[in-house]
Amino acid sequence: MSKEIITTDKAPKAIGPYSQGVKAGGFLFCSGQIPLDPVTGELRGADIREQTERVMENIAAVLAAAGLTCGDVVKSTIYLTDLADFAVVNEVYGERFPGEPPARSTVEVKGLPRGARVEIEVIALAP
Fold it and tell me: Where would you tag: which of 8, 39, 117, 127 has the fewest CB atoms within 10 A of its CB?
């Protein structure tokens, strides 16, 4: 089975030894996105709503680089540093999946890179 590395300058560059996305076996595996501005590389968003919106924009950019949309996502995992943020994150996230949302897990974690409050990773169908 072959794999294809997906990259775009419309999402933040990897801050470690990983790819923005990897297409393999009919799926696109997107690395977790935190609210980094793709131009400056700096954390963006003073509150959880702004951070989640930036994360979803980053995810959409990686999907688009592979010719996909949020409608192709079949599984996501949300990492939060505070589950009290769940309602706001859920609202922003839900705007991207108004029809048939993907399967999802949400996990509270002790910390995330660069002090982010939210990180989201997705898996999409990529025929």
Answer: 127
